[in-house]
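Hey L., structure's done. Input below.
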Amino acid sequence: MSSASFVLTLSCADRPGIVAAITTELAALGANIAESNQFWDRETDRFFMRLAFTAPDGVGRDAIERALKSPIERFSMKTSLSDDARRKRVVIMVSKFDHTLLHLLYQIRVGWLDAEVAAIISNHPDTRKIAEDAGIPFHLLPVTRDTKAAQEEQVLALVKQSGADLVVLARYMQVLSDNLSTRLFGQVINIHHSFLPSFKGAKPYHQAHERGVKIIGATAHYVTPDLDEGPIIEQETARVTHAMSPDDLVAAGRDIESRVLARAVKLHLENRVMLNGKKTVVFG
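Output:
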C-alpha cells in the first residue's frame, strides 16, 4: 500500500494528555509514526513536539487536519503540518563572498539538502555566473542608503513570487531593515562569525588575530530586528594557534561558516527547529 509522509510540529502549554490526544487521532487514520521528538521547557512550562509519520493511500492533508482539529483546539496548540512530498523552495541572498553559496548549491546537488533554489539575489554582480551555471534565476538588486526601502520591496516581491519557504543570507553583507525582518520573521537565516559583539566591522578575523584569539567559530540564526541577536539555530567552533596568520584564520572561518549555515538550513527544511521566545528548540 502506498503512503504519504508528513511532519507535524506543535507547541502549547504543558499538561497531561497531549501526546495521547495527537497519536490517538493519527492511529485512527491508520498513520504510522516514523519519528517522535518532544521537549518540555520547564522555564516557560511549554511543550514542544515533532512527529514524522506516514499516512495510508487516500488519507491526505485535509483528512489529517480534520482529525487533529479537536486536540489542537482542546490544548490551544500552535501547529504546522508539512507534506514531505513537496520540495521546499529557497531564495539565497549573497554579496561578494561566495563560499557559503557554493557549499549550499553543492549540498543541494548531491541531495544532502532537499531543496530547490528559486532565485539568487545579490547587490553585486560577482555571483551571476555561479547562478547561470546552475540554471538558477539571478537578480541583481544594488542597494544604497537612499534606495534601501525600494530595494527591499523588490526582494520581498521576489520572495513571494517564487513561493519561497526560506530566505538564506549566505554572507549577504547588508543589514535587513526592521520592516523586512519583521515581515519575514522565522523565514530568514543568517550566518556570521561568532566573535560578536567583539570585533565588529571590517576584517573581524584580522582583529581577532591581533588580539590573540584561540577559538573561532560561526553562528547561524533567524533574522530579527535585533541585529545579529536572533534565535540561534546552529554553531561551531575551532581552536586556532599563535602560528596561524590572519589569512589562515579567514580560511578556517570560511569552512566553519559554510558548514554551520548548511546544517542550519537542513534543520529548518526538515522542520526540526521550533521558536521558543528568544531561543530555539532543535530536534536533531
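The mean pLDDT is 95. The first strand starts at residue 3 and ends at 13.

-- N.
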